[in-house]
Every structure is written in C-alpha cells, then in structure tokens.
Amino acid sequence: MTTTSITPPAYVQQDDDDAPRGFDPQVSHGLYSFARPYLKQFGLSLILMVIGSAAAVAGPYLVKFAIDEGIARNSLPALGQAVIWYLVAAVVQWVATYLRLNIMARAGQSIIYDMRARLFNHLQNLSLGFFSRYSVGRLIARVINDVTSIRNFVTWAIIAIARSLFTLVGTVFVMLALNYRLSLYTFTMLPLIVIATIIFRNKVRSVYRRVRAGNSWVNSVLAENINGVRVVQAFSRQAYNYNRFRNEVNRYLLNNNLHAARLISIFFPTVDFISTGAIALVVWLGGAAVMSADITPGVLVAFVLYIERFFQPIQELSRRYDQFQATMIGGERILELLNTPVEIQDAEPAEELPPIEGHIKFDAVSFHYSDDPSTPVLEDISLEIQAGQTIALVGETGAGKSTLVKLLSRFYDPTEGAVRIDGIDIRTVTQNSLRRQMGIVLQEPFLFSGSIHDNIHFGNLEASYEDVQAAAKAVGAHEFITNLREGYDSQVEEGGALLSVGQRQLISFARALLADPRILILDEATSSIDTQTEQQIQAALALLLHGRTAVVIAHRLSTIVNADQILVMLNGKVAERGRHLELLEQGGLYYNLYRMGFQEQASEAFSD
Amino acid sequence: MKHLLKILPLIRPYRWHLLGAVFSLAAITALQLLIPGIIRDVIDEGLVAGQLQLLVRSAALILALGAIRAGLAAVQRYLSEWVSLHASYDLRNQLFNHIQNLPFTYHDRAQTGQLVSRSIEDVSTVQNFLGFGAIELLQTLFMAVGALTLMFTTDARLALIASLPVIPLVIQTTHFGIRSSQMFYAVDNALGQLSARLQENVTGAQVVRAFAREPYEINRFKHANHDLFKARVYVVDEWAKVMPTSVFLISLSTLAILWFGGQMVMAGTLTIGQLVAFNAYLLLLATPVQELVWLVNTAGEAAAGLQRAHEVLDHIPEIRSPAEPTPLPEVRGGVTFQQVTFQYAGEEEPALSDINLAIAANEVIGIIGSTGAGKSSLVNLIPRFYDTTQGQILIDGVDVRLLDLTTLRQHIGIVLQTSLLFSASIRENIALGRPHAEMEDIITAARAAQAHEFILRTPQGYDTVVGERGITLSGGQRQRIAIARALLLNPRILILDDATSSVDTETEHRIQQALKSQMQARTTFIIAQRLSSVRNADRILVLHEGRIVEEGAHDQLLKLNGRYKQLHDVQLAQHAEFKREIGQLDSSPNA
Questions:
Q1: CATH code for position B374
Q2: Pick from B271, B264, B396: which is nearest to B330 by CA?
Q3: What is the pTM of this model?
Q4: I want to staple A568 with a disulfide (CB 3.0 to 4.6 A). Which of A95, A560, A576, B381 is the partner?
Q5: Sign of the CA dihedral A102, A108, A111, A115?
Q6: Is A154 domain-assigned?
Q7: Inter-CA distances, A543 with A212, A471, A547, B573, Å
Q8: Rounded distance between C-alpha atoms, residue A147 and residue A159, angstroms
Q9: Best residue in B53, B98, B209 to probe A by mutation, most A CBs within 10 Å?
Q10: Does B501 sit within 8 Å of A480, measured CB to CB?
Q11: Same domain, A70 and A106
C-alpha cells in the first residue's frame, strides 16, 4: 500500500517537463497573439463583468438600506425603493452574466479552434525528422490536453480572476466605508491564510508531480497494451499484465492521488475555519460597537454578509493559481511546438517547377543531421540519372539509401552540394510543385481510415472513379477489392486486419500509379509479397516505370537486374556503380552481396 | 442521464465510506444552518437587550461550531475523494482487463485512440463527479431541505412566498441535466474524431508529404475541428442561458422576503432578527444554487463518460473459455480441421471454405498461396484468435472451443506477421509468455532465433530497452526477437506466420537452420513466400481463394504440375539466372 514501494520507469519521470512555473512574459505574449483577434470580446466581457459584479455587490447594501431606512423606520416607500432597486440589480446581473458567458465562451472556443488549426498546419510543414523525435502520444497530448487547459483558462479563468479581484477590491472598499475598524479586524485573518497556503503549496508540489507521472504511466501502459493486444493474447499475458497494471501502475496513481486528497482535505477546511474566525471576531467586537451605538445593527448585518464575499474571492484566486500554472505550462509547450523551425521551407521567391522531364543530378551531395554534425550520413554523392531510367540502390541497412531518396523528394536539404531535376536546384522551387510530380511508395504501406477508393484517390484528387478503378486493375488489386462486401467503398480500419500486408501494398501501388508521377521512388515495396502477387506487381511496375525516371531501393533480384544503373552504397558513399553484369564482373562488393544474398537461398531450395 | 445509474455498482463496495461522507455532510449542513440563528439571537437579544456577555458567548459559539465544521469538512472531503479515487481505480482496472480480453474481431475495427480515451478521459469524468459533483449536489439538496424547513418553521407564509421561484429553478435544472449528458456525449465523440485524425496524420506524415496532400488534410482536420467547435459552443450556449437564470430566480426570493417580510416586521408579526435570519437562510441556498448548474454539468459529463466506458465494458467477448473446460493434461500436438469455413464479419466472401485437414503430432506443415488466399486466417483459428463460422478444429481430438483459452494458447507459440515489441528490455520482451523464465533459457531461445549476437551488440545487451521508448531495431531484428519469444514457450505447436519476411536471405537461412532442430519435436506451421522456406516440410498446403487446392510433399506437388509447379518454375528461373551468372563469373579469370 505504501507509495514509495512502487517506482515508475525512468521515462515516465523524464516526461515530467511540466514542473510548476509562474508567470512567463514570453509565454503570455505568445498566448496573447492568439487572443488578439478577440480583444473586442474580452473588453466587452470585462465591462459586462464589472456591471454584473457591481449589481451583485449592491445586494447586501440594498438589504442594509431596506432594514435601516425602511423596516427600522417603518417607511414603506423606502422599503419599496430598496426592493425596486434590488430587482433592477438582479435583472442587470442576469442580462450581464448571460451576455458575458455567451461572448466569452465563444471567444474561448474560437481561440482554441485557431490554436488547433495553427498547430495542425504547422505539423504539416515540419520536416520528417521532427516526427521521428516527437512521439505521437506527446503530439496528441499537446493538441488535445494542453489546448484544453488553455481553453479553460481563457473561457473561465481570466474573467473569474478579474471578477474575483474586482469583487475583492469592491468589497474591501465597501467594508472600509461601512466601518474601518471592523474591516481591520477582518483583515487580521489574512496573514493566517497566506501562511496556510504557503505550507500547503510546498507539501503538495511533489505529490502533484507524482500524480502527473502516474497519469502518464497509466496512459503509456494502456496505449501499449491496446496496440499490442494481439501479441498479449497470443502469449496469454492478460492475467500477468492485469496484475501489473492493477498492483503497480494504477495503484501508484491511486496512492499518490490519495496522498494529494489528504492534503487538500486539510487545507480547504482550514481556510474555511479562518474565515469563520473573522465572523466570530466581527460579531463580538462589532456587537459591542452596536451596543455602544457606534454602528447601526444594519451595518453589522451587512458586514457579516461582506465577510463571506471577502474570503470567497481569495479562495477562488488561490484555486485559479493552479489553473494559471497549468496554462503557462501548456502554453509554453504549445508555443515550443509552434516555434519549432520549419527546416525545409520554400525559397523566397520560389518558382513552380515546370513539368518534369525526369533528369536527376546529385552534385557532390553530403548530408548529416543537424543535431549530429559529426556523423555524416551521405558523403560527396555525385550521380546522374537520365530521364526515363531506372536506378537501383543496393546496400546494407544504414548505408544511406533512404536518406538519398529523401533528399531527392526534399524531405531533407543537403548540407553540401545540390540536387537538381532537369538542371533546376530543387531548393529554388516550391515543395508542392516538386512533390506533386513525384510518386513515393513506402516500405510499409500506410492507409488512412476511409474507403479504399479514397485511399487510391488520394494520389490524384482530380481523378474520376473510373481512373481509380483503372489504376487498381493495372496493379492487380481490382479483383480482391471487388470481392469485398462494399467493393471500393469498403472502409479501411486503423487496425487494417481486413486487408493483408500484400493487399495494402497493392493499394499503395495503385495510389502511386494514379498520381502518374514523372519521378517514382520505390522503397523495398516488394519485400513481403508472395511470388504470385510479386509477379503481378512486377508486370504493373514495368508499365509504371515505363517513360518515367525511377529510383528503387531494392533487395529483390529481378528489380536489380532490370535496372539501368545500380548504385551500391556503403557507409554513406557510392561504393560501386554500373549495370548488373558489369558489377558482377568487377567481383567487388556487389558480387559479394549478391552471392551471399542469393546463393544460400538457391542452394537450399534447388539443390537437386 | 440514465447512464449515471451505472455508477451504483462502482460505489457499492465503498458504501460505508460513502455513508460516512454523507453523514459528515449532513452534520456540516446542520451546523451551517445554525449560524444564522446565532446571529438572529445576537441581534434580537444581545443588541436589543444590551447583553455583552451574550455577544462573547455567541462569538465563541460561532468559532467552536466553525472548528467542528472544519473537522467534519476535512473528514467528508477525504472520504468522498477516497471513494471517487477507488471507484475510478476499479473502473480503469475493469476497462484495462476487458479491453485486453476482447477478441481480435473487436480490435480489428476499433481505434486505439478511442479506446485509450475511454480509459483515461471518460474515467476521469466519473472521478470528478464522485469526488466533487455528487457530494456537492447532495449538499445542495441537504441545504435546500434544511433552509426551507427552517424558513417554514420561522414563518410559513413568508417561506411559501420565498420558495416560489425555486419551482422553475428545479424544472430548469432537471431539464438541463437531462440534455447535458447527450451534449457531452457529442463533445466526447467529436474530440475522439479529432484525435483520430491527428494521430493518423502524424503516423502517415510521410505519405501526406509525398503526395503533396497537405491542403487536403488541413481541410479534413478543419472539418473535425469545426465539429468539435460546434458541439462545444452548443453546450456553452445552454449553460449561458441556464446559469444566470438560476441566480436571478434566487434573487427574486430575496426580493420577496424584503418586500413582504419588511411589511411583516413593520406590522410587528416578525422581528428584524427573524427577517435577517430568513435572508441568511436564503443566502445559504443561493451559493449552492449557483453551483447547481455546474454540478449538473459534471453529472452530465460523468453520465456520458459512463456511457462510453460501458460501450466497451458491455461488449461481451465472443471468444472466451467455456465454463467447464475439458482438461488436456498432455498435449501431443495433433491438429484436425473438420469442414472448416470461416468468414470475417462484414465480408462478402468466406476467407476459408471447407477446409479438411488431419495433421499428426510433430508434422511440419508449409503453407503457401498468394496474398489474401487465407494463409493467416487458417493458422489464426488454431489458438482461437477467431472462431470458425462452420466446422470445428480439434487438438488431439478435442474441440478447441472446449479448452481453457489460456491453456490452449500456452501450448501454441506464434510469430505474427508484424512483430510488435513492448517498451521493456529485450529480456522482458523475449520472456513475454514466461515472465519468470531463467536467463539461461532466454539466451538459448535468442540463440535459436539468431538474435543473440545482435542483442549483445546493443548498449545494455539483454537489458536494453526497446519499443517506442527505447532504441529502434530493424524489422529483421524485431522479427528475430519475436521468434525467440515463441521458442521460449517451448510450445507443442509452433506457428510461423511469414516470420522471416523482413530479414535478409542470409539471416533467414541461418534462422531456418536453427529452427530445423526446434521443429523436430513439435507440430509446426510455416507460412512463407519463398518456396525455399517450406520445401522441407512434411506436407505443403497450397491455398487459393480460401481453399486448399494442392497438398503434399515437395516432390509430389511438383509432379502435379499445378500451381506449386508454376511458382517453383518462376523461382527456379530466377535461380537459374543466378546460377548461370555465378557460374560464368566463377569460371572467368577476374572473379
């Protein structure tokens, strides 16, 4: 049961980049830029809030007036006057609050709508390197949770803080005006509240940190178990995982939450008790003052009512402080995301890339990641591909094949040298015009949730339904698609179990074919397709490759053999280049790769 | 709102704690109601009669009551937090366990993001409601009853007039409460959609870029974002109407007290002190009423959360152990398919039709066929990842549906097509099926899977953390760990579903050599693309469109001159090409 006996893994604690922090001018300024379009609404809300609060504050005063001037003096007109003013105040409060809530909530929603849209747009522009550093879970936490904490702050807290301050100042003013001595008695309780708050904050800080760690632990364990549920079941791990979740992960969260609850349960009643102390003090000393006729009974009654209004905003402000901190943390993380520089940007001015002929030239290209300059990924690569040629990249994992094609589609910019298409440095043209004319088939086919038609159509949004079918037919996917219950309208689910890996690959081929790119990049796309389908695809590829320039990262023999040029890559350099037979005759690296790669398989299968 | 009732089974185990909280709450409310009475005495007797002593006593009384109230408040707060935290702890456990046990058919159609959000956000709405909302709602109720009672005992006529505005208040709040859970359900769903869009775009970032589809995706996100905006604004609009109205209605009560009560004081039928107390009672009512709408809001959120959580919890797993499983003391490993037909839910054509197979213990079965022919579906039926639509599957003569699920799966080692690793050390990943396995056994399994060497080259060897939070392994390395994981079970039945597709041919060959000895004493199923992987199997099944079209050993199948022969010829042609080249080169002088 003890909290200390369970320790979450290191990554959960490292994740705690949200240690409490106070006011940060940079963050506030960043958040302000989102609020700026809605300044009019903020201003209006503020005015409405002042009006509403004034009406609310007037309440006790009017009660006092009714008692002292009306009832005590037996004056019905005075009572009537008080009642009418009370009604006016209530109506004013009603209307002002309604308008304020309406305006402010809309503004708050609009701000976070803008914020989410900006975040998403920015994500669309960030380089791919970013996504390998930033996990999906964290990104979603930013766009969902942090934005929500900001919404709560904008919608409710800003006005609430303003109202609390206003009420506090107003109440203090009225109290002083009513009787400064009684006011001072009340204020003597303030230091006690401050001390209690400081003690509480110090104690609760580390507990809250553990609660956050617990939440993120629960989150990641859950997500991982849902993602891997098939493996979990295959290995009958449910009971073991459940026990671990219940007794460690979830229990850790529970224990720390309980600890926090204990502290909170003591703190708030303590503050409450202090304010009761103020009432007692006022009843005693104020009562004496009434007897000595220093003040009227009405003043005393109003005073007791005002004490409540004095301590309430103080408690409210202390509660809002937590929210304020959460907002600062969330704001900082969101701004950090928004300020992540877009490494690959269109030049100013960038031109549209004219229709590509298909000539590709790498001019002494070198590349290393910006955060690791000492490890070159590509070194001094020079190569030329004539329009319509197919080039095969061969080499071990990590030799630089994928980086090379990423430079070609400008997912990264070379650190030295230049990549030219038809003689034009691709950094001088818009990314959109460049990629629109390129097709890329990834190693792991990625399908979006939506229909199969939508997934193929993604390649060319202008294509007709017939075009989509034609592309599917060309790659041999039409048959299995029409066998599905809803044919092309069948929904692809995230789990994707409805389609086999091979089928998904066929669809991604159809997508690339429909895009009809001038340059095609193919990344080992044939590695897990069965012989029959592979044959089908090779036929389709022959058709697809015809008349375009193609760069293929290949492991398969047939693709390599048919290439116009083979580049053998080793440690970021081109070690050998030439056609299949030429390279074999050199008896070098390619020869060894080839022999090693295929002889074992061959002798095993066909030793007869 | 009816979904809120589902909270009852959650709090039942903690009813005594809850009762304690409710009792403390009632006591607090009673104390709070006493204070206006004291102030009335101060005014009517102390001030009017000029008794200083009474003043001191009253002040002391207020202070003492305040202390008791604070103590009770601490108890009440802690107890209700305790109940809420335990109930949400239980609910999270239930969800976790239930999701884990939902069959493949469910997960095939579910979105990870949605399931996670049900277990996190929906549970926290319930926690919020139990921790604050429910108790405060109750307090408001107590307070209302108490204040009204005191008002009626003070003066029934005045009380009646003052409580008139409460009627529309109750109606309005109830109405809002009923609709709020629907509104929040819509908000939750819109939020789920938004995060699903986001998740997909982050995972598929490269595809979006590759096809220059950023504007298209931005537009799709805009729609999801707008749907959420609309759902939320709808909630807020309602709230903006209801909240100020409640406050206004309570003000009307104060108004009535002042006007009518004031006249009664003038007429001498009521004292000033009584009037002030009356007003104080009403104020006690006013603060909670202001919060009432917010509380009903919380209740609505919790109801929506419970509804979403129960959409998962109420889904009874289609595949579960029978109540009285047939014991299977010693598994030999014979597998029989009897007229098995299998169709995925929502698909037109069956994935497998009329499969009849009798596989002896320790037989090695190779399965080949084109994409979508039904290879994976066939093996997935054995550990009951799916149940057959027709026919049955027997292990050593016993229908798999009669066996305990855990026992069944413990005897089957399976390497799935996509090898998923967990954020844990390599050691724990291999020990997935046997968490307490000896290190020696783990190393043996890793060696057999050709994984030992590369594992030793990782920074901390077997203790290196892999998965999303750890180092990145190549596809081939992940597959080898997955194979080691299956071998460690020492299963009677071993299923390799295209287990070596991502490793290079050399490693594949080495794995096969190692597996050869592993296959000796178990029934093995090998799904493969390359004929070389299945060539040595005792029997090879050629699947086509869900049927076994050819069956037999390598040589027999070649003689059939059918599909298998075709595949063989294609691969042989490649091989011949290869041989010719190598032959040429080896005989040429510069090689």
A1: 3.40.50.300
A2: B396
A3: 0.78
A4: A576
A5: negative
A6: yes
A7: 56, 11, 9, 22
A8: 18
A9: B209
A10: no
A11: yes
Rounded CA separation B263/A79 (Å): 8
Contact list in A for residue B97 (CB cut-off 8 A) is 238, 242, 245
A199/B contact by beta carbon, under 8 A: no
- Give the CA angle between residues A317, A318, A320 to the nearest 5°: 60
Contact B516, B524 (CB under 8 A): no
A466 burial type by CB count under 10 A (0-12 exposed, 13-18 middle, 19+ buried): exposed
Measured CA to CA, the distance from residue B233 to residue B210 in angstroms comes to 36
Contact state of B100 with A242 under an 8 Å Cβ cutoff: yes
Only one residue has tokens 């959580």, namely: B309
Which structural domain range is residue A109 located in? Answer: 24-178+327-343
Q: Using CA coordinates, name the residue in chain A closest to B433.
A: A235
Nearest in space to A571 (alpha carbons), one of A366, A373, A411:
A366
B369 CB-near residues (< 8 Å, 6+ apart): A530, B375, B541, B542, B543, B544
Encoded tokens for A145: 């949770």
Sign of the torsion formed by the C-alpha atoms of A463, A464, A465 and A470 = negative
Q: Which residues contact A180 (CB under 8 A, 6 or more apart)?
A: none
Distance CA A473, CA A539 (A): 12
| Same domain assignment for residues A80 and A202 | no
> What phi, psi does A411 have (nearest 5°)?
-75, -25
- Name beta bridge partners: B544: B547
Please tell me whether residues A214 and A279 are part of one structural domain: yes
Kindly determine whether residue A90 and residue B216, on different chains, have CB atoms separated by under 8 Å: no
Tokens 């039928």 map to which residue?
A: B269
Task: Specify if B586 maps to a domain.
Answer: no
Probe site for chain A from B58, B189, B207 (most A CB atoms < 10 A): B207
Q: What are phi and psi of B463, to 5 degrees?
A: -95, 0
Are B461 and B414 in the same domain? yes
| Burial tier of B201 (Cβ tally within 10 Å: 0-12, 13-18, 19+) | buried
User: Do B425 and B533 have their domain in common?
Assistant: yes
Residue B108 lies in domain? 2-313
The answer to whether B151 and B276 have CB atoms below 8 angstroms apart is no
The verdict on a CB contact (< 8 Å) between B266 and A71 is yes
Structure tokens at B167: 């009627």
Query: How close is the nearest chain A Cα to the Cα of B497, in Å?
Result: 12
- pLDDT in 10s for each residue of chain B, 591 residues: 678 888 889 999 999 999 999 899 889 888 877 877 777 777 777 666 667 777 788 888 888 988 998 999 999 989 999 999 999 999 999 999 898 888 888 887 777 777 877 788 788 888 888 887 887 788 888 888 888 888 888 888 888 888 888 888 888 888 888 888 888 888 888 887 887 788 777 777 777 777 777 788 888 889 989 999 999 888 888 888 888 888 888 888 888 888 888 888 888 888 888 888 888 788 777 777 777 777 888 888 888 888 888 888 888 888 888 888 888 878 888 999 999 999 987 777 888 999 999 999 999 999 988 777 888 899 999 999 899 999 999 999 999 999 998 888 888 988 887 777 887 899 999 998 888 899 999 999 999 888 898 899 888 899 998 876 666 777 778 888 988 999 998 889 999 887 776 666 667 777 777 777 777 788 999 998 777 778 888 999 999 889 999 999 999 998 988 888 888 887 777 667 666 666 665 555 443
Find, among B421, B412, B419, the residue nearest to B487 by Cα: B412
Q: Which residues pair with A440 in a beta bridge?
A: A521
Angle at which helix B214-256 crosses helix B156-163, to 10 degrees, equals: 160
HEC string of A464-523 equals CHHHHHHHHHHCCCHHHHHHCCCHHHCEECCCCCCCCHHHHHHHHHHHHHHHCCCEEEEE
